């Protein structure tokens, strides 16, 4: 069921999240200082391509707070807005609710990407 959900997800709009995370990863990786955030973006792009069967563990550490604030200012708010809009659009139909919930999960990830990790469920 996870495979089918991931295929339908990618066809119906998951590629938008995948491309957004990938483009931000490339932009962050242009500078040497931004490479660690760019690597995180590439990890999350991989998750955005196939989110079913994966979950996110958020860090409780305050060490990454400064980097997360810089992230939000320099690109995070755009991803958060995109994911919320896509989540609302998908939740307008009964069939799209699981996909909308995945977009909301990605919006939360876009708020605090540094220190977060992806694991299989």
Give an overview of the whole structure.
This protein is mainly alpha-helical and 121 residues long. It has one domain (2-120). It has four helices and two strands. It has helices at 2-29, 35-49, 65-91, 97-111; strands at 54-57, 117-120. It has a two-stranded antiparallel ribbon. Helix 1 (2-29) runs antiparallel to helix 2 (35-49), helix 1 (2-29) crosses helix 3 and helix 3 runs antiparallel to helix 4. The longest helix is centred in the N-terminal third of the chain and has 28 residues, at 2-29. It is globular and about 40 Å long. The two termini are 13 Å apart. The model has no long low-confidence stretch (mean pLDDT 86).
Defining traits:
mainly alpha; 4 helices; single chain; two-stranded antiparallel ribbon; 70% helix; 121 residues
Distance between the termini: 13 Å
pLDDT average, as an integer? 86
For the biggest β-sheet, the strand order reads 1-2
The residue ranges in which pLDDT falls below 50 over 5 or more consecutive positions are none
Strand content: 5-15%
Main pleated-sheet profile: 2 strands, antiparallel
Helix content: over 70%
Question: Based on DSSP secondary structure assignment, what is the total number of beta strands?
Answer: 2
- Kindly name the structural category: mainly alpha
Cα radius of gyration in angstroms: 14 Å
Give the SSE order as H and E letters. HHEHHE
Number of helices: 4
Shape: globular
Total discrete domains: 1
Overview in brief:
The chain has one domain. It has helices at residues 2-29, 35-49, 65-91, 97-111; strands at residues 54-57, 117-120.
